[in-house]
Each structure stands twice: as structure tokens, then as C-alpha cells.
Amino acid sequence: MLKRCIVTSCIVVRNGRILLINHKKFKKWMYPGGHVEENETPIEAVKRETKEETGYNVSIVGPMPVGLKGYKPARELPAPFTTVYEDVHYKTGRHMHFDIMYFGIAKGRQGRLAKGESPKLRWISEKELDGIDTYYSVRKILKYSFYAIKNKMLNG
User: Fold this and answer.
1) What domains are there in the chain, each with its CATH number?
2) N or C: which end of the chain has fewer CB within 10 A?
3) pLDDT at 94
4) DSSP H helical segments within the chain, as ranges?
5) 49 alpha-carbon distance from chain centroid
6) pTM here?
7) Residue partners of 87: CB distance under 8 A and separation at least 6
8) Separation of alpha carbons 128 and 133, rounded Å
């Protein structure tokens, strides 16, 4: 049976570097993230997953806002960086992941590996990107992420 899932990922940034995890199932360097749980918003999920997988709290930032500040019935949230459809194969079957990706600024000086989560963390620079073991799509997203950081395309 084909399972459809909403997931979130976080491009965690600090001092021009991006934090990656060595994914415990796929054994590739990736950004932290995971499934949105019932009654949870994507922003709540991305903060929770990032904390669980890296130990870092993050402030979510996005592209410049539209400008709803002060408008009472609506509140503007940080916009996702991008949304990606991923066809993921697990032992239990195929999943369609709709991955809502955000930028997050790391709070604090040091993360910690949570019990049962990915075995390694790594802060990378743009120069190190081509040398990591990851998927084509992850590398492309990270390349554009470094471009966005360098060109100050975020409101944080």
C-alpha cells in the first residue's frame, strides 16, 4: 500500500555553515527532519525533529514576509524554503513524502546526539559540500541553501 506522509526538514545554519546528520537508516549525510504528527503544525514538527536529532533548538526563518503585521485575523508564519516530493522506499513499503523544508538558525553553542537518533553530526561549509556522501537532491538543495545564505535571502 502506498503511504502518503507530510514531513519537515530543517536547513540548520550557524556562522555560514549548515548542520547535517548521518541518517541512521539511509547512512547518508542529510538535514534533520521527520514526520509531522497528528495535531502538530509543520513548524512545530520541524523544531521538535531538529531538537530530537541534533540537540539544537532553532529559530525558523524564511523569505521576506508579505507584510501582514498588525492584521488581527491572520498571522504570517515563516515561509518554507521549498517543498519537495520524495519517493521513499522502506522495508514496509513505499512512502510518498511531501517534505516542507525550512531554514533554522541554531540556538546555543553545542548540540547533542539524542538516544536512538543518528550517530553523527557535522557542520559543513560550502567548500566541503562536494565531498560528502549524500543524495543528488540533498546536494542540490544544500547548494541553493548556501546561495541563499550568502545572498542574504532570509529574514533572520
Assistant:
1) 3-150 (3.90.79.10)
2) N
3) 82
4) 42-54, 136-150
5) 9
6) 0.87
7) 94, 95, 96, 97
8) 11
- For residue 19, list its beta bridge partners: 12, 123
Taking CA atoms, 42 is separated from 6, 54, 82, 87, 101, in Å, by 8, 18, 13, 19, 9
Instruction: Say how far residue 144 (Cα) sits from the centre of its chain.
Output: 13
The pLDDT tens digits of the residues spanning 16-74 come to 999 999 988 888 999 999 999 999 999 999 999 999 999 999 999 987 666 666 667 77
Cell numbers that stand for 69 in this block: 503585521
Mean pLDDT to the nearest integer, 77-106: 87
Listed residue (106, 149, 153) closest to 16, CA to CA: 149
Return the beta strands (E) in the chain as ranges: 3-14, 17-22, 29-30, 33-35, 57-61, 82-90, 93-107, 121-124
9, 46 Cβ separation under 8 angstroms = yes
Q: Which of 144, 145, 138 is nearest to 26 (CA)?
A: 138
Please give the Cα distance from 11 to 46 (Å, whole number).
10
pLDDT tens for each residue of 126-145: 999 999 999 999 999 999 99
| Cell numbers standing for residue 36 | 509531522
